[in-house]
Amino acid sequence: MVGWIAKRRPSPIGVDIGSRSVKLLQFDAGRAEVRAAARWDLPADPQAGTRQAGAPPDSAPRDDEQIVQAVCRAREGHNFRGREAVLCLGSGRLFVQNIRVAPASGEELKKQVHLEAAGRLPFSSEEAEIQYLEAADVRQSDMVRREVIVLACHRPVLARILALGERAGLRPVAVDVEPAAMLRCYCRQFRRDDDQQRRMVFVSLGASTTLVVIARGSDAVFIKYIEVGGRHLDEAVARHLQMTPADAAALRRHNGDRRADQRDPDITRSIAESVRPVLDRLAGELSLCLRYYSVTFRGQPLSQIVLGGGEATQSLADWLATRLDLPCELGDPLRSYQKSVSSERIGQWNVAAGLALREPT
Q: Are 85 and 181 in contact (CB under 8 A)?
């Protein structure tokens, strides 16, 4: 009699749909090796130069067909197995805010959170999918309040994301939120007992926004999106050097991806002068996040910053460490895994990896 042993399945495919590209990543069955990873750039966004300042990147949605085609092409020619996928809700699709309510638990806490969130949402609460994370009890004046992180999305947006995945030939098994995926990815690297007691800042600098998550071990206590990203850096270079944003993006990336001793000093200097106001704004916003944390969670000092995302570089990590007076490490989301992924801009895989690591519920 022949016995059959079922093979363990690899992880689901983590699908990170950004404002400039889609990134797909899948681990092997043992979650020890990257089985496949692929990125496919989306066509240039025709609204990028005309969108009102501060508007989220998804406020003028791309042609859905472009996203579907990008996901399909990213899968082609790579070693992805199966159709199960975890999709993502990120900037422009996700409402995030820290709020405070009276201490409670169970249904009473849920009722308070939903009631408080209803008045803050940019869409009808009746059409909202609302989740929340409990941060901690904090003191406000002479009262104790419960700090809670609200995460909400508009149900039509959620339906659209699921439809995109299905049209791309995938079988969505979950839709995760970007902050949870990023934190899950990095927490796989900080699993020692002393790591679980540390308070750390995870910063993901993307193409359109910067995600900030302050966490105690694997538990988020603060989440915020900052409207600063690679697009703003490209626009600053384009203005300063009088070129198109596309040419500015190519110049900045070509120069930044070279080793320091191979960069043209004049170009490096010009780019640095161009982007300084944008980076100053980023540092100022991060400083406000750190201040909010220090005032809210007194006596719980932060130990370090981990910088990731597609725009993360060692030079920026060094600069932020000096500006924010806190050690800043350039994150490698795949450091704990055997991998065959380009080491250039390795931080861009942090969300896709975290999605692929999500366990089924």
A: no
In this structure, are residues 208 and 229 in contact, taking their beta carbons and an 8 Å threshold?
A: yes
| Per-residue tokens: 176 | 């995760």
- 3 has a pLDDT exceeding 50: no
| Residue carrying the six token digits 């796989």 | 188
Per DSSP bridges, beta strands 143-154 and 171-177 are: unpaired
Residues 333/349, Cβ–Cβ less than 8 Å: yes
Please choose, from the candidates 208, 176, 184, 235, the residue with its C-alpha nearest in 3D space to the C-alpha of residue 91.
Answer: 208
**Non-local CB neighbours of 350 within 8 Å, separated by 6+ positions:** 181, 182, 185, 186, 204, 308, 309, 331, 333
What pLDDT band is residue 158 in, cutting at 50, 70 and 90?
Answer: very high
**For range 101-107, the mean pLDDT:** 95
Residue with tokens 């944003």: 245
The encoded tokens of residue 258 equal 């070279």
Predicted confidence band of residue 58 (pLDDT cuts 50, 70, 90) = very low
The owner of tokens 């079988």 is: 171
CATH number of 13-356: 3.30.420.40
Give the number of other CB atoms < 10 A from CB of residue 54: 7
